[in-house]
Amino acid sequence: xxxxxxxxxxxxxxxxxxxxxxxxxxxxxxxxxxxxxxxxxxxxxxxxxxxxxxxxxxxxxxxxxxxxxxxxxxxxxxxxxxxxxxxxxxxxxxxxxxxxxxxxxxxxxxxxxxxxxxxxxxxxxxxxxxxxxxxxxxxxxxxxxxxxxxxxxxxxxxxxxxxxxxxxxxxxxxxxxxxxxxxxxxxxxxxxxxxxxxxxxxxxxxxxxxxxxxxxxxxxxxxxx
Length: 225
Ligand SMILES: C[S@@+](CC[C@H](N)C(=O)[O-])C[C@H]1O[C@@H](n2cnc3c(N)ncnc32)[C@H](O)[C@@H]1O
Prior knowledge:
The protein is of the alpha/beta class. It has helices spanning 4-25, 29-39, 58-66, 79-89, 127-137, 155-168, 174-186, 190-199; strands spanning 48-52, 71-76, 95-99, 112-118, 138-149, 202-210, 215-222. The protein has a single domain (4-222), classed as Vaccinia Virus protein VP39 (Rossmann fold, 3-Layer(aba) Sandwich). The protein has a 7-stranded mixed beta sheet with strand order 3-2-1-4-5-7-6, with helices on both faces. Helix 5 (127-137) links the parallel strand 4 (112-118) and strand 5. Helix 1 (4-25) crosses helix 4, helix 2 (29-39) crosses helix 3 and helix 6 runs antiparallel to helix 7. The chain starts with a helix and ends with a strand. S-adenosylmethionine (SAM) binds at residues 4, 7, 11, 53-55, 58-59, 76-78, 81, 101-103, 118-120, 123-124.
């Protein structure tokens, strides 16, 4: 199910309605959650930031608003998602979007002060490869934010899945949202993810839950020398 070609074509198909459905399914909370979690990063003037799996660029644009004096690069492997991101970008010269696979990032070692991934890792079969790539391109002591569903078995997670099924029952994107529910079941939960990062020489800084623990933001520091 997590075949990269399948995932890419799914997001290419979803691109036009992605922002709209996201707002609906999250009952409008996703914007809040994204902005609040980004506020917990320390984004200094001139920071070079990479947003992996940027999609339509939500995290990228919110970060630019938080600190306009930054250079942000967004990468994604779906052309159609990036098309929307590029439309939203207008002429902003501090933002660049590139078509690239998160498993082989086209950047040199130690290129970025901050890396973010929003709702991305869960979609990638070899997510460990992505974590290693992020560690490679992130400077020593650089910050990493992973924002995603907590993938816990909690009550509110089941409520969320039910709401997702109801909202999408009448759309032609039903398969895509069935995938969303399945991908949450298959992926590591937030605590397991934190353990994995620790094993991979990252310092765990903090975790912030949102939306009754349905969503979790985990913050790490790159511990490589
Ligand atoms: C759920 S969207 C998240 C978009 C955005 N970060 C947000 O928070 O709204 C996941 C994105 O990950 C991208 N993606 C999945 N696998 C990828 C890979 N191997 N390399 C690059 N992008 C990938 C998809 O194309 C999609 O745009």
